[in-house]
Design a protein that fits this description.
alpha/beta, 10 helices
Length: 247
C-alpha cells in the first residue's frame, strides 16, 4: 500500500528540473491516501520506520535509474532519512546495497538528515556521514534554521547542501526579519561552499525574491506538487522560470 511520490527541485534562475525529492505516501484500501504526518510518527515510535526508510531508499534508487536512462542530463534524487534509521547498525551497508542493486551512480543520490540529528550528533554520526560522502553520495540538512543552527558546528559537517525551512519563506516578500535570516543563510552557505534549497515556494513573488537573493534551487507547489512517477514523467523539463531570466 506504500507508494512513492516525487516533487521536482528546480534551478532558481532557469526553472529547469535538477533533482527530485522522494516522498512516501500510504494508499489505504479503506481510508484512502493517508498523510505522512499521520503514519510517520507512528512508524518511528514502533520501529517500523526502519523498514519503511529502507524501502523508500531502494525504490527511489530503482526509479531514478530508470528515469535517468532516458535523460541527457541526469537528475538527483533526495531521500529523507529518519534519525532512528540513521543510528541503526548496518545503515551504511544498506545505502551501498541500494546503489549496487539499482546500478545508480552514487553522485545521483542525496540523503536528507535533520538539523537536530546533526547538531546534536556525536562524532560517530559525523564519521558515518563522511563514509557516505566518500561513496560519492550527497548529504543535505533539511529544515535548516528550525533547530540548533550552530554556525560554528555547521562548518565541520560533511554536507553538500542546506534546505531553508518553509516557515522562513512564507512571508519573505513582506517580512524583513525572515528576509534577513534567509539572506544570511544563503550568504553563509555559499561561503562554506554549500548549495542552498528554499522549500515551500508557492508564488511567483517568492520565486523571484529567492532568485534575486542568489538561492540556488527552489522547491514547492508553484512548480509542482508531489506526484506519482507516471505523472512526473509527463511534467515539462522547464518549469516556470524567473521573469526576465535567460532560459
Amino acid at each position: 500500500q506504500l507508494v512513492l511520490y516525487y516533487q521536482p527541485l528546480v534551478d532558481a534562475h532557469t526553472g529547469k528540473m535538477k533533482a527530485l525529492e522522494a516522498l512516501v505516501r500510504w494508499q489505504h484500501p479503506e481510508r484512502g491516501m493517508v498523510p505522512p504526518g499521520d503514519f510517520i510518527p507512528l512508524a518511528e515510535r514502533t520501529g517500523q520506520i526502519i523498514d519503511l526508510d529502507r524501502w523508500v531508499l531502494w525504490r527511489a534508487c530503482q526509479d531514478l535509474q530508470s528515469i535517468n536512462a532516458d535523460r541527457e542530463v541526469p537528475l538527483t534524487v533526495a531521500v529523507n532519512i529518519s534519525p532512528v534509521h540513521f543510528r541503526r547498525n548496518g545503515f551504511f551497508d544498506e545505502v551501498k546495497q541500494a546503489l549496487e542493486e539499482s546500478g545508480l551512480n552514487p553522485e545521483h543520490l542525496e540523503l536528507e538528515v535533520t538539523e537536530g540529528l546533526m547538531m546534536a550528533g556525536s562524532e560517530k554520526a559525523i564519521e558515518l556521514l563522511q563514509n557516505v560522502r566518500n561513496l560519492g553520495v550527497k548529504v543535505a540538512i533539511d529544515d535548516f534554521g528550525t533547530g540548533f543552527s550552530s554556525l560554528s558546528y555547521l562548518r565541520q559537517l560533511p554536507i553538500n547542501k542546506v534546505k531553508i525551512d518553509r516557515s522562513f519563506i512564507q512571508d519573505i516578500a513582506s517580512g524583513r526579519e525572515n528576509a534577513a535570516i534567509v539572506e544570511g543563510i544563503i550568504t553563509m552557505a555559499h561561503h562554506l561552499g554549500l548549495e542552498v534549497v528554499a522549500e515551500g515556494i508557492e508564488t511567483p513573488e517568492q520565486r523571484n525574491d529567492l532568485a534575486q537573493r542568489r538561492c540556488d534551487i527552489l522547491q514547492g507547489f508553484y512548480f509542482s506538487r508531489p506526484v506519482p512517477l507516471a505523472e512526473l514523467l509527463e511534467l515539462p523539463q522547464q518549469l516556470p522560470a524567473v521573469e526576465g531570466s535567460c532560459t
